[in-house]
Amino acid sequence: xxxxxxxxxxxxxxxxxxxxxxxxxxxxxxxxxxxxxxxxxxxxxxxxxxxxxxxxxxxxxxxxxxxxxxxxxxxxxxxxxxxxxxxxxxxxxxxxxxxxxxxxxxxxxxxxxxxxxxxxxxxxxxxxxxxxxxxxxxxxxxxxxxxxxxxxxxxxxxxxxxxxxxxxxxxxxxxxxxxxxxxxxxxxxxxxxxxxxxxxxxxxxxxxxxxxxxxxxxxxxxxxxxxxxxxxxxxxxxxxxxxxxxxxxxxxxxxxxxxxxxxxxxxxxxxxxxxxxxxxxxxxxxxxxxx
Amino acid sequence: xxxxxxxxxxxxxxxxxxxxxxxxxxxxxxxxxxxxxxxxxxxxxxxxxxxxxxxxxxxxxxxxxxxxxxxxxxxxxxxxxxxxxxxxxxxxxxxxxxxxxxxxxxxxxxxxxxxxxxxxxxxxxxxxxxxxxxxxxxxxxxxxxxxxxxxxxxxxxxxxxxxxxxxxxxxxxxxxxxxxxxxxxxxxxxxxxxxxxxxxxxxxxxxxxxxxxxxxxxxxxxxxxxxxxxxxxxxxxxxxxxxxxxxxxxxxxxxxxxxxxxxxxxxxxxxxxxxxxxx
Lengths: 291, 279
Hints:
The complex is a heterodimer of chains A (291) and B (279). By secondary structure, chain A is α/β, with parallel strands linked by helices. Chain A contains ten helices and eleven strands. In chain A, the strands form two sheets. Chain A has a nine-stranded mixed β-sheet with strand order 3-6-7-2-8-1-9-10-11, sandwiched between helices. Chain A is elongated and about 70 Å long. Chain B is α/β, with parallel strands linked by helices. In chain B, the strands form two sheets. A nine-stranded mixed β-sheet of chain B has the order 3-6-7-2-8-1-9-10-11, with helices on both faces. The radius of gyration of chain B is 22 Å and the shape is elongated. The chains are: A alpha/beta (291), B alpha/beta (279). Chain B: InterPro entries: 4Fe4S_Fe-S-bd (IPR017896), CobQ/CobB/MinD/ParA_Nub-bd_dom (IPR002586), P-loop_NTPase (IPR027417).
C-alpha cells in the first residue's frame, strides 16, 4: 500500500521569532522525513543543517525585456506603455531589469522590434544531504521576484522525492509574511505550526497569519517562543488562540543557549543543557499526535 | 531626505529602530511603513488614523457580447490570467499584473476596465510624525502595488523614514530604491550575519550608502563587526540586550521611551547621516 505523505509547514508571520531554530530542532527530532526550506529569499536553515548538495539546478522563471540599442529609434512608445516604471528614455530606451515584470507589452508594440524578451535566470535550487535527512532548498537572487513560483517548485520536488523514497513526512520551513511565497508554501499542507512571540507585534502578526491559514482552510497550531519575556501577553495570546480554534502546542522560555547553539551550528534540542531544547522536545511529542 | 531601515530578515529590530528615529527627529518627519504584509509601526507610534483609502489595481472584465474569441488578449498575457477554451474566454483577476496589454490588443473593445482591491492605505498623525502605512488584503499575493502607493505619499521636502519589509527580494528593493541612505539592522548571530550580507550586497549593487545597527549586540559573537570592517560599512550603533527593552517592546512601548537617553543618540545619528548624504 502506498504511504500517505503528510506535509507540515512551520510559519511565523514574521522572521526573528525563532522559527529556524525550532525547525532545526524538529529536523533533529523527526525520523524519516524530507526537509524543505521555503524561505527562498533569505534562508537560514542551511546554517544549522550544513547541507551537502547532491543536485544543483538553475531556476528560470518569466522573462525580462532588453533593448537592442542599435535598432531603437528612441520613439518612447515602450516607456509610455510600461505600467511598471521600468523604462526611461535617453537617446534610446533603457530598461531597469529590477522593475521589469516581464509582461512583454513593450516588445509587442515596439515599431522597430528593438526589444527582446529573455528568459530570466532568477535563482538556484538544490537537493542536499544533511545529518538529519535530505533537504530541498533554494536561493533566489537578490532583488528578484517570482519567489512564489520557486517555492511551489521546490515543494513539488520534495513531494516527488518523498514518493520515490517512500517517505511519509515533509517538514517545511516557511517564509516570513503573509504574501506570495507564504501563500505558495501553504498549498497541499496538512498542518501549519505557527511560531509567535509574546509581544504586541507578535500578536498582531499571529492574527494575520491565522487569518491566512483559515482563509485556505489549513488547520493551525501555535507555539509561543520566549513566552517568559511577557507572561501576561503569552496568556492573552494563548486565550485568543483557543478562542479561534488554533490550539497552543506549547511554550518555549527565553534561553541564551539558543544563540550559543546557533553560533555552534547545532540544533538546540541536541544540547542537553538548554531549557528551550526540552520545551521543543515536548512540543514535538505533542505535534506528532496531530499527524 | 529619505532614510530606509532594512534588515535582510524580520525580527532584528527594524521597526524599533525606524520608529525610534521618527520619534527622535523633531518636527516635520514622515514615517512610512512599507512592510505591507505585517505592518507593526502603528503599534509603537499609535497614530490617529484620519485618512483611509482602498488601493486597487486595474484588471480586465470581459464584455461577452463584443468578444470574438480572437485569442489576442490570451496571447499577450504573460501571467496566464486569461485563458481560452474554444470560444470561451476566462479571466482570472488574481493572477493579473495590470500591465494593460490585453486592453491594448483587443480590437473589439471587449474588455472593460475593472478594479481589484489589494489592500488599504491609512494615514494620520502620531504626535508630530506624519504616519502612513498599508495593509495588504489577506490572501492577496501582490503587495508591491500597495507598497508603491504608500511610497507615493512621501513628501519630497520632508525627512522621511521608511520601514522596509524583510528579505532582499522585490518588496525590499522597491522600498529602498529611492532612499538616500539605508540603515541595516542586524544581530550578531550567524543568521543575522547571513541575512545582512544578502541585503548589503543588494545595496552595494545599487550604490546606495548604508550603515549598520547591531541590535542585542552582546548576544552573539563579533563576526558581524568583522564583516562590516572588511566591507567598509560603518557600524552606526550597538544596542545591548536588556530585558527591559524586550519587555517594553512586548508591551508596544518604544525603545526611546524605555531608554530615554537613546533619543539624543538617534537624533545625533540622523545628523550624521544627513552629513554623509550631503557629501
